[in-house]
Amino acid sequence: MDLIIGCVRPKYATFSGRARRKEYWLFYLAWFILAVIAFGIDEVIGSPVIEIGVVGIVNVALICPSLAVSVRRLHDTNRKAWWLLLYLIPFIGAIWLIVLFCFKSTEGENQFGPDPLTHENA
Questions:
Q1: Which domain does 105 fall in, by range?
Q2: Into how many domains does the chain fold?
Q3: Angle, in degrees to the nearest 10, between helices 63-76 and 53-61
């Protein structure tokens, strides 16, 4: 839970450093749960699909931290943030990024900072 809150509060727009796999996937799990809850609220209050609604507000509020955690996750695999441009390639780009986000971290310190697994335990 601390990893999720850490992505949204102190690291809201922190694009430097590294994010381990657990932090990345827990953040997106929390985003998914919030989106489902927001969708339910939109359905209950009868918010039309064309209006932004609660789902839109949640998504807009979490765009910056989602980009930040994605960049930090790429940094953890010793890749630059430019790899996020793969999202512009339909279907294949998103699949390849998911594969990159699943890769194991580079062990030890890399050009983006100390290893979050060993640095966290120290």
A1: 2-111
A2: 1
A3: 40
